[in-house]
User: What shape does this take?
Amino acid sequence: MKTYQKVLLIVVTFFSLSALFTPEAAFAQIPGVKRTDLQRHNIEAAGYETIQARIDLEPGSAVGMHSHPGEEVIYVLEGIFEYQIEGEKPVILKTGDVLFVPAGKNHSAKNIGKVKASELATYIVKKDKPLLLFKK
Assistant: This one.
């Protein structure tokens, strides 16, 4: 194989693998969970951006412990969630409730109701970092 073919193969492999690590791909692997990105914008704080997404969880489904490279502001659109922020007691939130998750803090969410639960998640995060890091 010629050098340029090797380089091309490496580049294609990198971009193919990086697609697997997008938040959408990560959430697609969790049964009963759907993530819809709504908007993404640079902000005036150097090196940061804001991302807004809708997260839908079917009854009984959950997103395990994970963190983000910045703050997450959650607004519950419908349903009942149990959120667990690492080191804190679980909290139950229903339609209209809000939650703030500090930067880098591991947390999880579970739909504990009998119908779909949805949240509006707004992230203020460092650019060029993975948005979602699952705890190992």
Summary: The first helix runs from residue 3 to 20. The two ends are 38 Å apart (CA to CA).
